Prior knowledge:
Blueprint (H helix, E strand, L loop, with lengths): L5 H12 L7 H6 L4 H12 L3 H18 L4 H7 L5 H12 L12 E8 L2 E7 L4 E6 L5 H11 L4 E3 L3 H14 L16 H10 L10 H7 L6 H10 L25 H22 L1
Parallel strand pairs: 1-4
Antiparallel strand pairs: 1-2, 2-3
Helix pairs in contact: 4-5, 9-11, 10-11
Amino acid sequence: MASADPAIGVLLSALDERPEHRWSEGDIERLGFDLSTVRRSFKRQFGMTFLEVARQRRLRDGFETLSGGGSVIDAQLAAGFESASAFRTAFAKLLGRAPGTLDSTPVLFADWVETPLGSMVTACSSSQLLLLEFVDRKALRTELGKLDRLAKGRIGIGKTVPGEQVRSELQAFFDGVSARFSTPLAYCGSAFERSVWDELRRIPPGHTCSYSDIAKRLGQPTAARAVARANGANQIALVVPCHRVIGADGSLTGYGGGLWRKQKLLEIERHYRAVSKEDAK
């Protein structure tokens, strides 16, 4: 997802070459780039600074080490953290629990997924997807906390069949191949919230609607605000496409993953709408 700014491509390549390096503003300047320009470019393209991207990548490496059965110390080293306490703090900030407290025989498994719009975390049982969120979403820790309580503390890290299925479907989506998601889902919400989420899944790719539109479809035309709250409570991003809901005046409204991501998702889905029209001819 590189933009016209060449600094993004250069810095991401440098990050790939030295994933364990603890990047600093000095490193950016030594590569000949202006700090304020780089900051603006990365915020515009990814919703975060280059240094935040680099830190997220390091944490991903630690996460994946744990997912592969590695020890906490191996994960810490893979993530490039010299301090065990710093690694525990960073990990707990993401998942709500330090790595050493994760269950060794979990019923829910968290995993890491990379996408062109940023890193995401999945939470799955052996048969269903319960959560798919961008790791920088502020509500992620709270959402994982709810799942942790649902699982009575038995949440850990690892790969599952539904987790791998949604990973493949996300790849196809961003590659422009398919916008169809068929991974089995488990909703964690009220009956009304579930009805809203089902209605969201009926919005075709490349199309949008308003909260009031959904309320009318549910036969509750005065429930637009309740629909908005249910939309915000969705914790299976992209698969349950809450990004397809816009304001009644056509403006972009709040999105937990960031309005910049919402805009890019809608831009991506214009391709699927065009393909659908072509297939209909």
